[in-house]
Design goal:
CATH architecture of one domain: 2-Layer Sandwich
Structural class: alpha+beta
Helix content: 25-40%
Radius of gyration: 19 Å
Length: 169
Amino acid sequence: MKELGVEDLVVPEVKYFTFKEIEKILSENGVSPEKYDLNTESEKKLGELYPNTLVMVHDWPYEGRGFYIMPKSGEGDSKVTRGFDCIYKGMEITSGGQRVHIPELLEFQLKEKGLNPENFKSYVDSFRFGAPPHGGFGLGLERLTMLILNISNIRDVTLFPRDRERLTP
């Protein structure tokens, strides 16, 4: 790793918080997240408060997640999901959660989020033959690489970066 300018690669600590706990921590430190999400300022503050730590935020408000994230039912007094984000060095590096695998629930949540289920027919129909509970996440590999190598511009760690003059490799 020395060739890349990283002297010691330290395995980060992991801390788990609910979204409500994060709201409280941020509020106590003079930062206000968005109503159902973390803004850039919130993520940066978490990086300051928890250096070299993977901050796992779970139990996200239903209103702040996609129609495909499974809600928790019968747990607590507010509607939360089985979704999560991971913040590292002040930046979200992954987001995910348990996916909805029940077609009727997908249709209900699409309508509740103001979307037309007909526009998602093939997706919803793919679950009509039975699907087990499952989850997914998206890892921002370039973001993670940028943070590990302490590089300030994500284009410097992207294989085929795009900008205003270049849209193709």
